[in-house]
């Protein structure tokens, strides 16, 4: 990793909504950022990003460099690779295979996984055992509404960071990255055990993302329109995850924490508001869903540990099939 | 009820896909049939029904009379009112309120409920305690693809009939109606306890209808693309219903029967085929879903009886919210 006195050189892998906001923060912090853009490459290359936000105002900015493929920057050594793509474990090529060209022979480059779900670090750690891996939990409700155009209508901005595994000796890398995010105007926290934060966010992701994808309602609208059984479903999912976390030895993911998470949606139901979860947006846009990272990894762990999860298993099976149907439709459209 | 030697006079309430097929059968049996048509009134009035079928060929036929509202035929006394509408208990006006104009002071008219779900007879029996009520379970995979146009691509045709309640003394009415259906070329059976048949069909309806509505897959595609958790979900729902049926004293709805029902979908998964359930068709066409008849009545009975139904309750909450979102979208379109 470069000295703390040199501007950090960062490869941004996945420059969608979250990646686009973090790009702005890292540029503000003085970093050199090379962005790997896929669907929005032409727009970003020619016109940069247009961010419409409460936190940073309405602004236009461009990455230090834009590439379509990591093969275009194999000659460069990065301090950090910030991964802001969807987490799609099991997809081919896998995330570590995609990153290999810029990581081979570069054990000093830290990999920051700013992604949803649980168990998402395993395949990266297996292929790059020497690289520092940082696990990140993102709270940044932004949406890319068109190529390079990001709507970010709330003030909330928090990146929770920690080493993977939690006992690894590269905490300084987490602190350096958190400092950059804060210098750039965002919020960041370094955790001793990031898995607690990851599982705490899973409480909400596992309940609300599949509900949104399957019903096309926000969290608040779902609770207002599904009767007491809707409350029982969402709360039941959270309880199943608390039980699994307990069995897995992830401390701090308690019924009390679940109550606080559940109360956020209850409040939205009462006030007639609600949030469109990312999976609901993905369904509307015909994109793949983070089914395995958010649901599949949890239900498989539960089976291994003999924990009963009838509600989460039901949501998993339904969402997996919905994702298949989406991909089938998309392949027809693109044929 | 009229003599067996007079042609029966029948009011067909709900002339969609199933109603349109049964209309043909009743006409073939020599009945006089007045059809209440709503969305397809103009087409049926002017051009009749066009049926494209394996069982009856491709034919055109018209009801003896077509009306838009039962108020147009209050001066007539019917032997049977055959109800082939969706079952939407709890909707306003209720089904008995809709039928009242042709049933007031006519205790001899038999009411045939050819509808899905369980507990669907209760509100009709409460308002018309003197009328013979026949409960019918329909196997007739037909779809109305446009106003008055019915596609019916399978040979299957079976109406299972019985009195409501099963101990009621009007079995002769069930036998007469079954005879008419058979004379018309269809299949019909009179059961001593129709609730056994109703609950047996619920095994499939409760599993496959919400799965189709939520995932937009057929039964076969769902099983092929949701992994082992998909099998566990569908089978788990069937087991929950067997447990409830046992508690409710509905005999003959056993794990063995559930296995046979489940095997139909497994076979379709193996052969790469599958059936689009009615709720999936309803979602595609933006229509209301039979949520309460198929799911709500079952989960409420289960709560009363202290039977745990985590899977069916999950499907109920999701489908109820999906139905709300569909109706909200429809109201926007029609505004």
TrEMBL record, chains A, B:
GO terms for cellular component: cytoplasm. GO terms for molecular function: 2-dehydropantoate 2-reductase activity. Its EC number is 1.1.1.169. One of its GO terms (biological process) is pantothenate biosynthetic process. InterPro entries: 6-PGluconate_DH-like_C_sf, 6PGD_dom2, ApbA, KPA_reductase, KPR-Related, KPR_N, NAD(P)-bd_dom_sf. Keywords: NADP, Oxidoreductase. It catalyses: (R)-pantoate + NADP(+) = 2-dehydropantoate + NADPH + H(+). Residues 10-153 form the Ketopantoate reductase N-terminal domain. It holds the Pfam family ApbA. It is an enzyme of class 1 (oxidoreductase). Residues 193-321 form the Ketopantoate reductase C-terminal domain. Belongs to the ketopantoate reductase family. Catalyzes the NADPH-dependent reduction of ketopantoate into pantoic acid. This is 2-dehydropantoate 2-reductase. It comes from Aspergillus puulaauensis.
């Amino acid at each position: 990793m470069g000295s703390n006195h040199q501007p950090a050189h960062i490869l941004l892998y996945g420059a969608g909504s979250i990646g686009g906001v973090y790009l702005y923060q890292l540029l503000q912090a003085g970093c050199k950022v090379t962005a790997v853009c896929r669907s929005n490459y032409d727009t970003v290359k020619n016109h940069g990003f247009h961010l419409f936000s409460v936190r940073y105002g309405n602004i236009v900015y461009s990455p230090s460099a834009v590439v379509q493929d990591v093969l275009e920057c194999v000659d460069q050594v990065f301090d950090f690779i910030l991964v802001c793509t969807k987490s799609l474990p099991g997809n081919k090529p896998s995330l570590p295979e995609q990153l290999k060209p810029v990581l081979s022979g570069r054990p000093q480059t830290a990999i920051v996984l700013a992604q949803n779900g649980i168990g998402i670090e395993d395949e990266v750690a297996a292929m790059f055992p020497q690289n520092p891996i940082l696990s990140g939990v993102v709270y940044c409700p932004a949406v890319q509404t068109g190529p390079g155009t990001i709507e970010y209508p709330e003030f909330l901005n928090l990146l929770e960071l920690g080493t993977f595994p939690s006992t690894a000796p590269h905490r300084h890398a987490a602190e350096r990255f958190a400092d950059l995010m804060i210098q750039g105007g965002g919020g960041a926290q370094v955790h001793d055990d990031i898995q607690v934060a990851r599982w705490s966010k899973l409480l909400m992701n596992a309940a609300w993302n599949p509900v949104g994808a399957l019903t096309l309602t926000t969290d608040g609208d779902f609770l207002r329109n599904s009767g007491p059984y809707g409350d029982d479903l969402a709360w039941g999912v959270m309880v199943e995850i608390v039980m699994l976390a307990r069995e897995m030895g992830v401390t701090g993911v308690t019924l009390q924490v679940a109550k606080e998470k559940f109360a956020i949606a209850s409040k939205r139901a009462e006030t007639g508001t609600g949030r469109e979860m990312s999976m609901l947006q993905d369904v509307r846009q015909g994109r793949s869903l983070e089914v395995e990272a958010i649901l599949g990894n949890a239900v498989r762990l539960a089976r291994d540990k003999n924990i009963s999860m009838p509600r989460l298993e039901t949501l998993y099976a339904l969402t997996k099939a919905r994702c298949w149907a989406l991909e089938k439709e998309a392949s027809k459209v693109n044929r």
